[in-house]
Amino acid sequence: NRNERLPLKMETAALVAPITALELFHDRFLLSGEGPVLSVYGLQPRPGVGASLSVLQHYRIHGIRPRSRDAVFYDFAVFGGKAVRLVGLGLDPRDVETPHLEVLGPLMELQDWVLDVRWLPADKRPLLCVAVAHNAALLLDSAAGSALVQCSCLEGCLLYSALLLVDERWANTVLVGGTVFNQLVIWKPGRGDQTINPGHKAPVERRLSGHSGVIFSISYLQEEGYLASASDDRSVRVWAVGALGGPGGRCGDPSPTCLRVLYGHQARVFSVRLSAGYVFSAGEDGACLVWDLGGGGGKVIRTLKGHRAGGVRSLAVSGGAGGDDRWVATGGADGGVRLWKVEDGVERKEGLEEKLTDLKFADRGLPKVVCVAGGEEGNVCWSQFLVCTDRGAVCRYSDGSWETLWEGPPEFHSYSVMDTTTVSTVTLCAVGNISGSIQVFPTSHPLSGVRLAGRPGKIHSVFWKKATDTLYLLASGAEGLVYRWCVDVKTTENGSSVLSAVPLPAFLLPLCSKRWLTAAVCLQRHSDQVLWVCGDRRGSLLLFQEDGNVELSRTDRGKASEGSRTDGETRTTLQPVSCLFGVHGKHGVTSVCEHQGLFYSTGKDGCVRIFRVSPAKPESSHGELHLEVLRVQRACRGMEWLERVLILEPEVPEDVGVEGENVIGGELRENRFVIVGFHAVHFVVWDPVRQERLMAVPCGGGHRSWSLWPSHPGLWSGRGALVFIKQGAVLTSQPPGEMLGCAGEAGRTGGWSLREGIHGRGIWCVCRLGRIEEIGTQSGDSKTFWEIVVTGGEDTNLAVLAINAASGLVKVLSVITDHISGVRALTATTQAQGEALCALLLSAGGRAQIQCNRLLVVWDRHRLTPSCQVIQVASHRLDIQWERKRNRHKTVKMDPESRRFFCFVSLSLYFIHLLLIFCYHLSRLFSVSEAENLIDLLWETFYHQRCVLCVATCSLQDDKACGKRVTSWRSSTVSSVCDRALFNPSLGCWIVTALNFCPHTTFLLTSSSSLVSFSHKSSICELKLKPTSPLLFWVDIVLRIDVQVLDSQT
Prior knowledge:
Helix content: under 10%
Organism: Fundulus heteroclitus
Number of strands: 83
Low-confidence stretches: 346-352, 376-380, 549-570, 652-660, 742-749, 957-1050
Shape: globular
Largest sheet: 8 strands, mixed
GO biological process, one term: tRNA methylation
InterPro entries: Quinoprot_gluc/sorb_DH_b-prop, tRNA_Anticodon_Mtase-Reg, WD40/YVTN_repeat-like_dom_sf, WD40_repeat_CS, WD40_repeat_dom_sf, WD40_rpt
Radius of gyration: 34 Å
Mean pLDDT: 78
Family: Belongs to the WD repeat WDR6 family.
Strand content: over 45%
């Protein structure tokens, strides 16, 4: 029966919410509460995802309390809100590392908020002691779901936190509550049965005062008699209270004292845990601090950070008995779960911040430039450094002592630039001066060096660059000339090194105020074609092209072979074939690198630009190549000085023999990378996807010479060390000669990511793009699909997610950081390109900003995971012209344009896209052109008198529209619109009822006086938009479109 309505049932396939509860159990399992869902993770042999189960319906889980039933089955009391439920965890005897969850009883709903639950161990029945928010306690029979005993405190105040200390009998139970009056009260619920107070109310036994804010968390260490409290006032207090609970229900010392007041968090402290000799605290600032209560005097000895904005909402710490390492688990507001292993009594570093070692530079002048030298590629042991001083001397640090390798003539005094490289086992050093000459020598035989020169003038920078089989030396001189040599190193029979330098045509940089080279990379595309991508001090990216076999004159070859001075006047110059002028701002480009066909550049504008070398456009008159920026990645807030990009090592080894492995939908795939730069006074290695620090060194800021030594050149495997100059001293982040610090090792700093975080703040919009299928992992006929979803929120980021609906697993594929304010609206047009899902994503938010990105999502058969490539298409902001205006600080801006876009709809016309955007009572129409990478404002109106809250679109198909109706409402009037006929001009409807262009589609545009309907049965050549009144907008489609006017007034 068509009129029969079937019930609609919806189930949660995946949930991303703040982690509000964590519990470590027997150092084998970690249980977490995310909304009403209870999840269990196995810790042995390696942390991983176990099982999940929805437990508390519409309540959030705030606590998990375990009880062992036997060797393979355990009971848990799960509570949150006003509910308590029992859950069982079982182990398969054949696979004890794979747990499963099951609900043991009905949901028990109480009349008050539950703050803590404990098992009463002596009773055979499953009895629970429950602390509730109005300073009361219950003895709950979980089998019957009823309260056996209820007792309140004489001080009937509201509690923000509570801690129950239970013994074998209910009469021995002690409750510690954190009141709304910033105090801790200790009382015995069992005493209420023996007193004469009305309603069996128990008195307060002890009262602890000192906090200036409400108390969020309480922890007790029985062995030491310490009580810790975490408060809204950003402090943690440790109290000496003595013995609490146990036989007789002891309430501690009559006069408890405060031992420590620990200040270290930058915001509210949500959780605190006591362990032998240590205090663990977690707060809204996103940090978990480890405090030393012993000889450290209450100092922070370690900082654990791994969550996005929003803070750490839950904390769990294992016992660490007998000197064993402790497991520490943190759950964030971003929905992420992180796990660390904290060593006991060994590690004394403050989190990611490295201890500094002074190399005691000798008195040979002030150090100006420092470089790491020595060692073979891939060697993780570092011990040699080269320093150039203001007296023109090059000194080497090796085996704990300094020695002078080379002393330059007077023209190298007061100013010099230096760079080093290692070829096989030979370390080469190049030093440039203010007069235009460069000294090149091997560090093993400094006297066998050669002197190179260009035109007279200052050498701004020198670079060593390696190609496939060639070593290049670049020197940026005066008047924008970049001199180049091809350097060859030969070793004689007696072990000495002989250098030969062959000059190459110089590069000529474009005219600008700061005309020198700051970065370069070489790419050999073919045997006869070499490409150079360079960056200059003006912030421009340049592309130079040359033939691979550069012919030189016989005179130049003779001079080069003799190692004598070569004159730069005879060289020809190469002009850039493509230039992206000032893309990194006026502070310059700091680095350019290439990996698997894509280029990555950094600058002091806080951005990483991913770009490629593309063929010339068909409409171009030249047949030359050009640089094309694919997208821009920003670092964290406040990190503007970026220095380098290091590619993250893949999770599995790459098989270079697989053809097309690095291609998604015909586009080169972007690799995951980390950003190296300066954040305030720290040198930082930053992961832009996980939004976390991987390494931090307090060096003092970016205005200094430094050198980073990763374990693998150009890659970041979690190991690295820094050497830098500060106030005339040469400092390192760890002693030379030691193995490089494991800054990314899970057990020490970065931890294991059991669940990835997404947004630390509110999620404001969601857009589903489609789904992709797993390939190469299914067994039988079953298919597994991943839903691709994009979310935008208050943290100004867009997160591209892949969700496995079967397992509830959520993977973060990419984080887009283009917006400067919160993202309010999302829409997308999608299409399939073979196995890839292609989507044009449009996002809008604060500051009247629109971003357009092309997403290519595909299943990676090599890594067995979804992969996403982001290409930036266009952006638009009405303030952009104002920001480019000179001397704008001297004028008053009449329209500050602080509006936020709340909702919009999109319209695709094959070659162009239309956006109808609403912001309060303002409506705007934009066009998006992918070919021109442009978003244009076409028209705007202030017709609406109130805020536009929602916009909807619909589509009518010609062959299926018979009998279908579209209904529009305005005020209390209702109009029924049938196919092709159907409008009452007196209604005055202002709704655009069809905005989806596809073959054989009927479009309806309505206004106060007309309805236009036209069928699209052919390709569209031209689209014109004309603002007319009182129409919302008018669409005029030209070329082979049959338009039927249904109203003669139109």
